[in-house]
Amino acid sequence: MTVRHALLALLSEGPKYGLRLGQEFEARTGEIWPLNTGQVYTTLQRLERDGLVESDDDADTGPKKDFRITAAGDEELRRWLRTPGDNGAPPRDELVIKVLVATQVPDVHVAELIQVHRRHLVETMRAYSRLKEDAGEHDVGLLLVVDAELFRLDAVSRWLDTAEARLRRRPDPDAVATVPARPKLRGRVGARR
Amino acid sequence: MSGVLELHQVAKSYGEGPNTVHALHGIDLTAQAGELVAIMGPSGSGKSTLLTIAGTLEVADEGAVLVEGQDVATMSANDRARLRRRSVGYVFQDFNLLAGLTAAENVSMPLELDGLRPKAARAAAHAALDELGVADRAGHYPDQLSGGERQRVAIARAVVGDRHLLLTDEPTGALDSVNGEGVMRRLRAACRRGVACVMVTHDAQLASWADRVVFLRDGRIIDHTSAAPGPESLLVPSAES
Questions:
Q1: Which of A131, B27, B53, B170 is deepest in the core (most CB within 10 A)?
Q2: Which residues of A touch B223 (CB under 8 A)?
Q3: A25, A129, A164 member nearest B209 (Cβ)
Q4: What is the least distance, in Å, from the CA of B114 to any CA of chain A?
């Protein structure tokens, strides 16, 4: 989540002061990401330094000082919106590493370990679904944020299901030593967090 | 506390001798009024068998099944059929609507079979369809309805009358996620009215709508979720600059 671009997006609607930007940021993201006022002003100062927003220097310098997006800021916002996320390299996922390690540790029942993580995931997802239920169908900002998190957790849950099914069918561990060498992925895995 | 549905040490096998398949072993499960319980497990874990036994469509080999306090093993086939019509609603993945009947007729038919006068049954069907937002489709046949509309008609048929137990098998079926969420909101609304709902699914997102999730593997309950944490448990300290 980049606060910098979220603030540019809010300012693209018209001039606003810092306190209001903080409140709108939280409201638009379903209040999932709390943002303190100090963080808003620090980010605004950096945006102003980079020429992406401007304010009236001579005017009120208090909490109601208005900020405006500049042409360069508008251009940066539109460039950022179209820039793909970093999906190139697999992330160094702690859960993936735990399951991989568990397959090597003696006396660890991997299916039980997977179930511990699956239960925790479902419990977290349940809290999100309850949030969605309480919000109703009109709070689109919140629903979009919660959907994104639910799909992310769902993907992890599906990976656990697949890992469990794959490990159930794995061949005799003694035979693993004879598996032919595969192309090296090691340079890529873990490149992104 | 007694539940609307209680399963005690239920076991079920198919086949004989070396070909015996043990579908369920020692299942203990209770669903209280107003509670949505999800049974989560992969294909072949025994989910559907559990649901058909809970719905009295199949008989357990061992153990007891109680619906609204009545032991179904002591009931005649006719009494079980009456219990199914009056107390148990089903929502299946493929809707199971009767093609030759309109949406309203699909919903009113179980009430009429149970002896309700046609006029009263039609009124109850319209009220149920209205609550699910498909009253304007009451006169349409299943093949004239979208997937989402068919699913809503199936839910109306499951909850119409005075049903206290709702059994659902992957109730969002092939619906897209927004329509699927609509189905789950309606199931939750039925629970708020006091219906006990048991839903089997392999889908974690669907299961996450439940009050309680029970995990099934190889015909056994291996785990269950703890008490539901509130949404406040999700708050993170601060956003990243």
A1: B27
A2: 115, 119
A3: A129
A4: 35
Q: Are strands B70-71 and B62-67 parallel, antiparallel or unpaired?
A: antiparallel
Chain A CB contacts of B209 under 8 Å are 126, 129, 133
User: What ipTM did this prediction achieve?
Assistant: 0.85
Number of domains chain A contains? 2
Query: Is the domain of A77 the same as that of A143?
Result: no
C-alpha span between A101 and A161 (Å, rounded): 17
Chain B residues with CB under 8 Å of A153 CB are 204
Question: Which residue out of B47, B233, B241 would a mutagenesis test of the A interface target, given it has the greatest number of A Cβ atoms within 10 Å?
Answer: B241
Domain count, chain B: 1
Query: What strands lie across the sheet with B220-224, from one edge to the other?
Result: B88-91, B165-169, B196-201, B36-40, B212-217, B220-224
Domain with residue B60: its CATH number is: 3.40.50.300
Same domain, residue pair A69 and A26: yes
| Angstrom distance (rounded) from CA B192 to CA B115 | 27
Residue B210 sits at the chain A interface (C-beta within 8 Å): yes
Note whether B240 contacts A: Cβ–Cβ < 8 A. Answer: yes
Residues A50 and A118 in one domain: no
Decide: helix, strand or coil at residue B30. Answer: strand
Helix then strand then coil, in percent of chain B rounded to 5, is 40, 25, 35
Distance from CA of B210 to the nearest CA of A (A): 7
Residues 6 or more apart in contact with residue B25 via CB below 8 angstroms: B11, B219, B220
| pLDDT reported for residue A91 | 67
- Regions of chain A where pLDDT drops below 70: 1, 30-32, 57-63, 88-92, 172-193
Q: Does residue A46 belong to any structural domain of this protein?
A: yes
Per residue in B152-200, pLDDT (tens digit) is: 899 889 988 878 999 999 888 767 788 788 888 888 988 998 999 999 9
Provide the residue range defining the domain that includes A131.
94-177
Range of the domain at B112: 5-12+26-225
Q: What is the pLDDT of residues A92-141, one digit of tens each?
A: 678 888 898 888 888 889 999 999 999 999 999 999 999 999 887 788 88
What is the predicted pLDDT for the residue at A191? 47
